[in-house]
Amino acid sequence: MTDKKFLEQVVDMLDDQYYDGDAKKWIIRHSKEYFIKYNKAITIDAFKVGVSSIEQEVLKTSVIETLKEVYQTYEAPDLEFVQDKTIDFFKNQALKTAIMESVEILEYDGDFDKIKSIIDEAMKAGMERDIGHNYQTMIDERYEEMARDTVETPWEVINELMQGGLGGGELGVVVAPAGAGKSWVLSAIGAAAIKNGKKIVHYSLELNEGYVGLRYDSIFTGIANQNLKFHKDEVVQKVFDLKGNLYIKYYPTKSATVHTIKAHLQRLTTLEGAPDLVIVDYADIMRDSGSSKEMRHALGNIYEDLRGLAGELQVPVWTASQANRSALDEDVIEAGKVAESYIKIMTADFVLSLSRKVEDKIGNTGRFHIIKNRFGPDGLTYPAKVNTNNGHIDIYHTDSVGGRHQQNKIDNRDNLTKGMLKNKYEQLMDTK
């Protein structure tokens, strides 16, 4: 009863007479009245207010215990199954009621048109109300959609390319080889949103919650991860001043599906309100909720489900993907270097790669490349400063002073490396 989309589908069928027990009847009646009045799912705070007004202690206790069972359901990975079975129950009850009314009408006056109308209405119970976009009548809605409600990244150049950032229902992907810093990039995106007053949920499938929290500490303070223990007071002050909120949830690698995350988000939304941004670090190590044994198909299912989750909840979702091993030596990582690339790139709205060779890691540099951009141009490459000790990441316009500086650093280092290799080769040749 705390899921808006579910309530939209069943509100017309909700009838407390379908249930045994005063507690269940009270919950059904209270949920329906709240939804009709405010056009949103009832919150736990609203339930608390309602329960406090119950005078009968036995009923109050029973309602509280029943509500506990309801909210525990949101932890179950099979929430969709529970909702489907509930809709089936409502449909059957609506049809049963219609048949009983029809029998009475038949016995009274035999009005078959009235009977047909009653049965037809019962058959419509639980049907999806949204029949799509009416092109002629929904012009205003169409142009309202052009003004996307976006969550900005920390980088002006990326926000410009995305027309403001990632919007509700959209999926962004950061691609990089192992150890290049894709998790730091995701955390930097989350940190920027928190600074702007947004509510963020960061799912980690690799690092525990405390360690992810320490990375955010480094980003907010600029203090290297290994030195944070000496600066706890500074961290406390920075965290205290933040405008937004961050929730970090850890699931072991290959244990969580998109349905697991959806169930957690529904529960979080009920308890704390809907998030403005979801980060999944990272999709490649999630578990496919289907039964596909082929990695290519399994990954395809995961990315499609993740994109579907973003659309259903109308929240922007950022995740990351592993690049192929061959990408370790690439100056620029393009589409062909993304592991099982086709379905990922087809599904995502924005795909950003990060390339960092050994010399880049030493010099805290790198290159970001726009693989896909549904909102504007792609195929562009930008020099960057990337410090994976404190999460300090800057992406530069190629024609900016900082951009030219970073590119010169990269070019000079590459030339130096090539020169050293050449000298080494000549020395080896001389010894022969």
Overall strand count:
11
Give the CATH class of the largest domain.
Alpha Beta
Approximately what portion of the residues adopt beta-strand conformation? 5-15%
Element pattern in H and E: HHHHHHHEHEEHEHHEHEHEHEHEEEH
Second CATH tier, the architecture of the largest domain: 3-Layer(aba) Sandwich
Which spans of ≥5 residues are poorly predicted at pLDDT below 50? Answer: none
Global mean pLDDT: 82
In whole angstroms, how far apart are the ends?
81 Å
Helix content range: 40-55%
Counting helices, strands and paired strands, the structural category is: alpha/beta
Overall tally of structural domains:
2
CATH superfamily of the largest domain: P-loop containing nucleotide triphosphate hydrolases
Main sheet characteristics: 9 strands, mixed
Cα-atom radius of gyration: 27 Å
Query: Count of DSSP helices?
Result: 16
Might you state the CATH topology name of the largest domain? Rossmann fold
Spatial order of the strands in the main sheet?
Answer: 5-4-6-7-3-8-9-10-11
Q: Outline, from the CA principal axes?
A: elongated
Explain this structure to me?
The structure is a single chain. With 432 residues, this protein is an alpha/beta fold. It has two domains: 120 residues, no CATH class; 246 residues, Rossmann fold, CATH 3.40.50. It is built from 16 helices and eleven strands. It has a nine-stranded mixed β-sheet, sandwiched between helices. A two-stranded antiparallel sheet has the order 1-2. Strand 10 and strand 11 form a beta hairpin. Helix 9 packs across helix 10. It is elongated and about 110 Å long. The termini are far apart. The model has no long low-confidence stretch (mean pLDDT 82).
